[in-house]
Amino acid sequence: MMVQASPQVLVICGPTASGKSSTAIQVARELDGEIVSADSMQIYRGMDIGTAKVTPEEQALVRHHLIDCCEPGETFSVARFKELATAAIRDIQSRGKLAIVCGGTGQYISALTQGIDYVDIPVDPVLRESLNQRAREEGLDALYQELSQADPEAVQAIKPQDQKRIIRALEIFHQTGRPKTEHLAESRLKGPDFNFIVYCLTHQREVLYDKINQRVQTMIDMGLVEEVRQLLVKTNGPAASTAWQAIGYKEIIASLQGQKTLQEATSDIAQATRRYAKRQLTWFRKMPDVHWLHDLTSDQAARAMINEMKNKTIF
Fold first, then answer.
1. What pTM did the predictor assign?
2. Residue 187 to residue 189: CA distance in whole angstroms
3. What is residue 1's predicted lDDT score, i.e. its pLDDT?
4. What's residue 57's pLDDT?
5. How far apart are CA 28 and CA 266, in angstroms?
6. CA separation (Å) from 76 to 15, 79, 144, 165, 256?
7. How many CB atoms lie within 10 A of CB 253?
8. Rounded-to-integer distance, Cα 72 and Cα 52, Å
9. Domains and CATH numbers, the chain
10. What does the DSSP assignment read for 26-72?
């Protein structure tokens, strides 16, 4: 495989259950590549079944990066992902191999392909609790109106009921004295570090939703309930972290706590996953220069990518 000064980085994205991982493994095996995961939940150790993490056997076939990076209670930001992913890509390329970014977390992929240098502004627990307290006492609408004054551009993309994003945007404003959109505008000035080619896998809605429903049931059959139970014991209960808000985990926790039956939890997971897939597709449609592959099997998608990459002079 020829490697030149600006080797191409292949990106394989798409909604949940679209066949990304299988496709990426096939491409990597034929083109001597390694995979950089762009999944915001597969970074957590012990969260395997519920995140559809590649198996140890699959990882033995192709080297994977950015999987099992931290514990469920730890925080992990987009800025941290971009830092680690960039280092992984440089390492892969330094060894003459093809770097393949694979995942469904839109923010992660955009950070790389659009060269967004997110300012990693750490959470101030005291400030966050103060804002949450205000939301309880004054109502979330009061904070939404405050954000409308502080960052009118950001508020256009945040729903009035989205407390998490409202509070985060206000945190950034109060901590830095500057609106979030100003930070984001500055973050895009440098541009991407690599030459990317982006493929997005997708299927007709009915087909994709059927794949999602089957995946959820498979996760239950594989032991998702026991996985969650063991994680709860290991971490002494669900903490206020992003990991415990993952689809599949919060619903099973509710079932284990007696708030709903397992059947209800399973149905809720499938519904939440279908909604998430819809949001993923919305994000990817807004990304520039995406090559869409519709209604292909993993074998077919892999072959299409392999043929195109082999026809390129730089990869």
1. 0.83
2. 6
3. 38
4. 95
5. 33
6. 21, 8, 26, 16, 26
7. 18
8. 16
9. 8-117+189-311 (3.40.50.300), 125-187 (1.10.20.140)
10. HHHHHHTEEEEE--SSTTBTT--TTTTPPPHHHHHHS-EESSS-B-T
